[in-house]
Amino acid sequence: MTNYILTFLISMVPLVELRGGVPFGIIKGIPWQQALPLCMVANMIPVPIIFFFARKVLVWGADKPVIGKFFTFCLEKGTHGGEKLQAKAGRGIYAALLLFVGIPLPGTGAWTGTLAASMLDLDFKKSVLAVILGVLLAGVIMTVLSLTGVAAFSAATS
Prior knowledge:
Layout: H1 2-10, H2 17-27, H3 32-44, H4 47-61, H5 68-89, H6 93-102, H7 110-119, H8 124-157
Helix pairs in contact: 1-2, 1-3, 2-3, 2-8, 3-8, 4-5, 4-7, 5-6, 5-7, 6-7, 6-8, 7-8
């Protein structure tokens, strides 16, 4: 049960998200059919909170002593990511958001994608759908990579 809880919590951590949760769960012996949905749910829990409140909290804290630099960094990252996404995507912004979240690279997950959508004042429902599909895409990619990596590692150590 501890491995399930840890896998769930890892999938909620910014930057790591499902990209770390899926491999962790599979390595710890959780069947991929359970690890993938578990990580997806965990990765999606913060999305509405980020969409509606993150920008307000970051703006509020940007000029505070101790947290100001980090909050400013987050605001700049979200704004920059959103502007880049919009410039490249134009009218296909939601498809671009899906791909941005779905390509499992550092800094391109549900947290950053949702923050960018919030900064761009995109439609909540369309943004969440794009993020869910992006998380599914990233989850499938990470599951395949994890399973092939675990199989290769097991074969090499046999």
